[in-house]
Amino acid sequence: MNESELRRLLADLSLEEKIGQMIQLPGYFQNAGNITGPANDMGFTQDDLRFAGSYLSIIGAEKLRQMQTEFMAQHPHHIPLLFMADIINGYRTVFPIPLAQACTFDPDLIEKSAVVAAREAAVSGLHVTFSPMADLVRDARWGRVMESAGEDPFLNGQVAAAMVRGYQGHDLREPGKIAACLKHFAGYGAPDGGRDYNTVELSERTLREDYLPAYQAAVRAGCELVMTSFNTLNRIPSAANEWLLREVLRREMGFEGMVISDWNALQELLAHGIAENPSEAAFVALRAGVDMDMVSPIYAKNLKELAEKGRIPMAWIDESVWHILRLKNRLGLFEHTFKDADEAAEKTVHLSEAHRRMARTCAEQSFVLLRNDEQLLPIRGDDSVFIGPYAESPLLNGAWSIFADDQDTVSLKAALRSRPKTHEVPVVPGCAMADPEHPVIGFQHPLPPEELDTEAALEEAVRLAKQAEKVILCLGEHRECSGEAASRGDLSLPRCQLRLLDTVAAVNPNIIVVLFTGRPLDIRPVSEKAKAILLCWLPGTEGGEAVLRTLLGENNPGGKLSMSFPYCTGQVPVYYNHLNTGRPWNAGILDGRFGSKYQDIPNEPLYPFGYGLSYTTFACSPVTLSGKRMTRSTSISATVSVTNTGSRTGTQTVQLYIRDLSGSVARPVRELKGFRRVTLEPGQCTPVTFTITEEMLRFVGLSMDTASECGDFDVFIGFDSRTDNRARFTLTE
Ligand code: GLC
Fold first, then answer.
1. Which of 139, 262, 293, 342 is catalytic?
2. Residues 412, 499: one domain?
3. Is 547 exposed, middle or buried (0-12, 13-18, 19+ CB in 10 A)?
4. Average pLDDT of every residue of the chain
5. Does residue 499 lie within any of the structural domains?
6. By alpha-carbon position, which residue is closest to atom 10 of ligand 1?
7. Res 120 pLDDT > 80
8. Which domain holds residue 405?
9. Is the pLDDT of residue 591 over 90?
């Protein structure tokens, strides 16, 4: 439909039909013809269902084609439904969690993963994914850190933009393309205490400097939707935050698409205490610019009366409905109502060998080798025993993998059994996944209790460990312990797993820990007892195969931490791009007592942002600059030579950090401004050059404008955020 036809359609709609477009209902309200219990409980009526604009979390080509057919037949203007769902890290073929994908430092690979996710979702009839999640996160207590790209604004932006490109391509009408919904706008990843849905207190400068850049990158990449976050900013919930949505998002960032609330967020404006009644909630949300109300009755039950009484201008409603109709039109739904929904294609596209291969590659590149003393890794396979709850668990998908089937996942045990060389190696649980006093709370439903004779399991583990050359200890946090509403006050591993570690390490010093988790954890005990640590996050459908290929050396791990691993929970939030303070602890007075430090723990995390080892080794030459001075109209090249000094091919991620030594406001001790992945043969050496531009030096200054300021800068180039390989230059007028 062309724009004038679409404008005419908008003009022809009744008020009920317009308001209907602004309502999104959950899948369990399905069957437009039949009101269901929950719908009634929420006050929805038959008409609300008749005119609804969208459903979420309902999937399947056959189901959605039937639903679309029934719905459009009864709709007065036959406007198609939008079908949306959370495809956070894959649909049926599950990829590593986004926090792990970010460790690849490979935007092209992340884009390809999103292409696969979109292709699989599209054939099942979906039009929109609630992804990318671009919330910056510095607090691992917050369970949704697993959905994020971690603690760095630049890396976050690269990941978010790559996902948007992968999902949307160049034209949403193309087969296999779906619209991307950026979330959660804004600042959701910074709740007080790391507690989900809690208050967010950010200065405007910190919001703009650290939290907005990733959202801006996704908007620049063309994301079609933005989802408001549950939290308050400046004590105003995002869904009612006119400054945030109309000034910052639309006017400043140039977003022209559709704004959807998060689940029931409009109803929650009452709990926030910024609306006295549902009618006022509808008013403040529409005034702020929320186009579609996700699963709350606020718009459905109140907009009509507000409009008829003239309390809201029809222009507000028309503007929202226009955003919604335009998205449907961009997806080509008026011409191709079912878009890509195709039952036959579901059978061939889902979990295809090519998709599995892509998921395995992404998993392998996301692994971070944290330690490898005595080159204990790689193993032969028949020299080891595999112990731990994750040695055989198929639960390797992240908590949001809600449309996948764990039966499709390759566990580590399954991978071992699929190879002649490791077909017989012992694989035993050794302990339960979780402590009985802290049972895992399911993401969507309660989990069955773990049936295990823990004493017998431990004895069996010790017996096997005594006989083996090496022990592969597969530990970690249950996947349901991260994700939404999964904040934790203690980042330690379960006590049962720590007991297993201690007991096995007492009989065999050659401990290799393979760590599965949705968040950074306090892994001091692991660091003390294990000679090698391979961080595998939640690696997805092909996780077991990817882990085994890495343990055997068929894959050489090269991932880099997208988020710091804290020394302990008490150190959180901990992140590399912090301010220096007036008393950086190493420059304190009276022996450092009065420096910015703790009395009982170090300031440094256990493992820093950007860190990761390889089965080979690399060297980096000192930084050379093409000049010592630059102006706003020139640039400087910063070069190092990187050499593979080891005995096998490996990939290194060379990282560029810049420090602004002085500004009109305090500046971080360093900020990531670029990275380059290089794969080198043994002995091979290659130059890596970064161009430093004036744009890289800009920040939110005293006047709240974003600009560079003249002065001295340090350039750091190395293999993680602690590199001291530096050179200095000056920006002059
Ligand atoms: C949830 C989440 C959001 C998700 C939405 C739809 O509450 O906050 O990320 O996309 O509801 O499932």
1. 262
2. yes
3. buried
4. 96
5. yes
6. 130
7. yes
8. 358-571
9. no
